[in-house]
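User: For my dataset I need records formatted as: sequence, then structure tokens, nothing else. Please produce one.
Assistant:
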Amino acid sequence: MPEATMALTKYLEEWRSGISTVLTQLAGEAVACECGPSSAAPATGGVVACFESAGPIHGSLALAFEEAAAAHLARMFMGEPPAEATALTPEDRDAVSELARQFAGTVALAIKAAVGKCELSFTSVDPPSWPAAATHALLLRRGTQSLTMGLLMGHELTDSLSVPEPAPTPAPSTSPTSTEPLPPNRNFDLLLDVELRVRLRFGKRTMQLKEIVALNAGSVVELEQHVEEPAELLVDDKVLARGEVVVVDGNYGLRVTEIVAPSQRLASLSS
């Protein structure tokens, strides 16, 4: 039995919906996303995030952010107010790259629910080496502001989306048809119940095996961290925040004093 796929129009709708959902969550207000065809190449000087799709829908794609859009989205992602147009900093590029990953993760979950399997893997921030078979413009609207980004698709990807979707099987006349609408933001809500391992790290120490074997009750292990340095909050071994250790009702807690910047989070992943 062949694997299920979806039409190009529905695939683009999942990207439009996923991007709108992520940005709305970040901004705390509605951010609309409209999708349409575009023959324009992405502007130089911006940010390009390339992905490889695997499964029944497979091939190369890239998100292209013009410089002005990249700068605005980077500040939105980092919770900073919009600033005057300036050249993109390395931190801006890291933030937009991580935001593109969040877009892809949300879209992959929605496509997986529709076709049963989908993998969207980030490959690089270099301009795509493959020719684009189609380019679609994504217009973002937040209040009176509007930004444009592009979705570039390779030939293999467009070919995998060219298979027409099977016509839905009509429901028996004796069975009632549900018209209940799907809840809004359902793609993002799928993530809210995912369990993550959270740890509090006071410090760390590299030890030789002979030192570990020699440990016994009463041994003192000196950490490579000073008393005045903040403790770290780790989510799945990724440093998310730092702060002061406190005691609340007999339990240890952390008063957060610093949220780690996206560039540092990316560095912790690659180290």
